Amino acid sequence: MKKVYTCFCTDVIHEGHLNILREAAKYGEVSVGVLSDGAMVGFNRFPTISLEERMEMVRQTGLVHEVLVQDEVVYDHVMESLRPDYIVHGDNWKEGPERFIRQNVLENIERWGGELVEIPYTYNEKVKHIDDLMKEKLAMPEFRRKRLRQLIAMRPIVKALEVHSGLTALIAEKTVVESGGRLDQFDAMWISSLCDSTAKGKPDIELVDMSSRIRTIDDVMDVTTKPIILDGDTGGLIEHFVYNIRTLERMGVSAVIIEDKTGLKKNSLFGTEVEQTQDSNDNFCEKIKAGKQVLRTEDFMIIARIESLILDKGMEDALNRGFAYVKAGADGIMIHSRKKSPDEILEFCRKFREKDGDTPIVVVPTSFNSITEEELAQAGVNIVIYANQLTRSAFPAMQNTAVEILQNHRALEADAKLMPFQDIIRLIDEI
Ligand code: SPV
Ligand code: MG
Fold first, then answer.
1. What single string gives the DSSP state of each residue in 352-406?
2. Does 423 participate in catalysis according to the annotation?
3. Alpha-carbon span 24 to 4, nearest angstrom
4. Are 361 and 352 in contact (CB under 8 A)?
5. CB of 103 within 8 A of CB of 181?
6. 3-state helix/strand/coil string of 239-266
7. How far is the CA of 231 from the centre of ligand 2 (A)?
8. How far is 177 from 186, CA to CA, in rounded Å?
9. Distance from the CA of 70 to the center of ligand 1, in angstroms?
10. pTM summary value
11. Which residue's C-alpha comes closest to atom 10 of ligand 1?
12. pLDDT digits (tens, 9 = 90+) for 361-401
């Protein structure tokens, strides 16, 4: 009996999968690899049922000889142990980031004379409907909200990208690249006070009010499924904070990060150049406690942001506050720095982790941007936020275009650098 292998990355079996299994069975005994949770996330498909349930779902088709776990998006390990005579796959992987997986299979299978069989991909209204249902499920508040905690448990480090509109959110949602033999994508979205304000042409001083921030969140939620971390500035008055986080929790936001500043907050990247007041340890702990008390779910996270290093208050103050905030109930801490070198962040993480191995640590490496995700993960960081890079790349591009049109009295010269609108539209889903 010839050995046939195919791999599924899905939470539902539809006619397309059944077609692949039936075709595969014509070549021999079929083994199906089910992608592990971690590999599915790398594939930009967050699982909504457990690995065991996904395996059982494939067994239930009655069309397979065995079901096994494939731990990586590439087939290397499975192929090495199984040495299949045939690998069967839908022909839809010839384009896009999956191309490299196909290439890898072709190179590997040659070594023992195996063959790749590609089946025309089934794509019809019914299959599209099932795909859409899966996506909609992930976008529902109860699924989206808990996803950040799930990702912290699953990923070596959770990567969040700043978004401030439907379009920027689609970039965070859909960008997938192949890098170093793996597929990679952003796990979460950061709704920055700085960039949300900047997009509205306003300063980052808590001037853009909560109703407007909620409008941005809603625009983002409307077109995405990934979890949202909201930059909640100082959280405002305790009396207001408790209402606002209930709204955020109900909407399906996963976390709010509030910073231990008070009064007229200014952006941290200004550091001590502008007048900024740090909240007292006690008052900020009261805010955290009050917030925790009103939450209705275990999913929503209040993350406490420590501004001691930004305000030159020293490492000891930063650490003391970190431990105090956790004691007050914070579900995570964010330590911020405006130094070019990551040294003070690494020192903080080392000292914090000596006493607290679990509480998630968040960092925003805007200034200390030479440090890699791997180095941060090794230092015990759980979430890295790329807090303003999308805005900073778009602004000069738009400004240059404006200048070029003015200089040439027409758009022809600027056009060479512009993306055709068809390519932008491709990002936007039709219902
Ligand atoms: C933001 O993105 O608004 C932040 C991070 O709060 S920082 O700008 O670095 O203070
Ligand atoms: Mg901010």
1. HHHH-SSS-EEE--SSSTTS-HHHHHHTT--EEEE-SHHHHHHHHHHHHHHHHHH
2. no
3. 7
4. yes
5. no
6. HHHHHHHHHHHHHCCCEEEEECEECCCC
7. 6
8. 10
9. 39
10. 0.94
11. 268
12. 999 999 999 999 999 999 999 999 999 999 999 999 999 99
